[in-house]
Amino acid sequence: MSKNTRFLLISLPASISPSNDHDEALTALRSAVTTDYGTVFPFSIPEFKIGTLDALVQQADELAKLEAGCEAVVGKVGDSLRTILEGDEGKIAQQKTVNDKSAEQYLKSFHWNKTKYQANKPLGEIIETLHKEVTSIDNQVKDKYNSYNQIKTNLTSLQRKQTGNLSNKSLSNVVPASLLVQDSDYLETHLIAVPRTITKDFLRAYETLTPMVVPRSAVQVAADEEFTLYTVTTFKKHSHEFIHKCRESKWTPRDFKYKEGGKEEESKELDRVGKEEKKVWGEALRLGRTAWGESVMAWVHVLALRVFVETVLRYGLPLNFVCGLIRTTSKLAKRARSSLDASYSYLGGNAFGRDKKGRVTKDDSSTSADMQAAGHMGDSGEYSPYVCYEFEIQ
Question: Which member of 50, 114, 208, 251 lies 3.0 to 4.6 Å from 246 by CB, making a disulfide possible if both were Cys?
């Protein structure tokens, strides 16, 4: 879906057509928007069991919070997919489907999922079902991606040990046992990585760095483009002081214990973690694809519920309304709404008027404050004479 695409989910009373006919009302809506500002698609919403007015007002508030939560989860799942696919937008777009359709196709052909969200249940139960589902999706994705990131970090650390320089790479295949003093009660061999630019300073100074450094014990073990690795033997009681002085001199002491077969063990561990990383990567990708589709589906159902509840609160009973989905762009969305305001301002009563040139004007801020207190301001903070929710799916 284009990043520039926006949607308006609109509800209007069927009385906008002289015959009060649903199809004619949809045609009137299309005429009000015109193809200059967007394309209108029918959006089918079933009738739900309605409780008391107080319950509806409370549910409107719950749905507003739930919709914000749904949008946040969709965004987080999208970010997780972006991370695991390393920002490849083409591959990311392939994963973002809802029931094997693009999000836009799903919206255009939307039908209430009566299997997952039984429309004959009370509104409160449907809202609770959606809330539990979205929370579960969020937790599952968070847990799986945390597991993947941990394994990925472990793998990166193991790989760095194989490919880094002598100040940080594994020394299992670098240091032979013959260069180390082992099983001594008094002596200890240290491995020191010295920047190649200051090796002369090291060789000149190491014997006098601390007391009881074995003279001429420095032996070059290996060298790379950045560091030269030496062994130095000291008496154990001065080991801690020697290591501290090495760090002060910008020489890097390496913590290394020789182990027979250590090189083979590291190789096996790298192979094991590499296979585990691939396995969990696949699981995270599959979960991300499924979770994105399910969270978008839940979001759209919450939007449908918001439209229904607001429609009842706005237009009253018996219900006779038309709902349409307007596909537009970020730039044209405002113009589409202005065109709708011009056509249906009369639905807003005293909140709308016309200036001397006949253009629609909104009333002063005191009216807006009254409308906001009544819960009719929508997400944008501006009152509309019709039910309207604007959103985009990234």
Answer: 251
- How far out from the chain centre does Cα 47 lie? 33
Minimal CA–CA distance to 182: which of 121, 236, 130?
A: 236
Is the pLDDT score of 57 beyond 90? yes
Q: Angle at Cα 161 formed by Cα 160 and Cα 165, nearest 5°?
A: 85
| pLDDT at 381 (0 to 100) | 56
